[in-house]
Amino acid sequence: MDQAHQEELELKAFTTESVDPRYSDLDRMSTSEIVGAMNEAEMEVPLAVRRALPQISTAIDAISEGMESGGRLFYVGAGTPGRLGVLDASECPPTFSIDPDRVVGIIAGGPDALTTAVEGAEDDRQAGYEAVALRGLGPHDSVVGVTASGRTPYVLGAVQAARDAGAVSVGISSNAGAVLSGLVDHPIEVVVGPEIITGSTRLKAGSAQKQVLNMISTVCMVRLGKTYGNLMVDVSATNRKLEARARNLVMHITGCDERSAADALRASSGKVKVAVVCLVLDVDPQQARSLLARAGGSLRSALEAVPAVHSRGPEERSEEGRTAPWTC
Description:
globular; disordered C terminus; Rossmann fold; 5 strands; 328 residues; alpha/beta; 5-stranded parallel β-sheet; Helicase, Ruva Protein, domain 3
């Protein structure tokens, strides 16, 4: 039996390639029936993700530990998984003000593959290995391979490079007993079952991948002190909407009025955390940055590290309507 025929037989055994008889008349359904069926199918995704939560949590803890020591996070995939990885990575800098080099998406076939299928790119295991190996990985770095089948050669090569470099390796797949799972430190198998259109893993499998990637990046950023409670205090205020969000965040946390929030942000170069520390602890922006640096960038730690006698509650600041002497 030749290799191509063997691979075809293996593919048929995957749940992501099996036929769901519930939708055998899909082409005869009305539009409302199809969208209803798709909605019904997608309801299975969060349940599948829930079953994998222990494995997801363990993987995130390992990734976060590395990132807290200065490590980087790489997502690697081909086709839809690759695009989802690039999407998640690209949203981290504006949302959390993290250096773009700290969270990186790598897609088989390079940037052109984001909008156009690059034939054969996913089958090149050596290219996947080199795409990761050339990043100069270390023990604090993490590589997350994403592939619905769990056997995409490009991704297998990438996680092998991570293992060889001593980096943390994670594999996200949608089939039980995936080849990928045997190559990584932390396998995550989110088995969503057959797709409404057989083999179209951009659907349920893609939704599951997006949910898991959301969890990975969000929890890692929380662990890095990029939030205060559930507030996005490290947001980059790059447009009017985000500037308004920054003012609202400062007002919400400190209890100050809008003018005081705007003045504090202006003096703090638009940095919410700096502005909050200035207002709460009665310090200037330079001192606020120093306090935050000592707290590892965590706003909560910076505020709690200073005795309460040195800070005033929101009610007191609001009543005074004060403007700090260092503001313009």
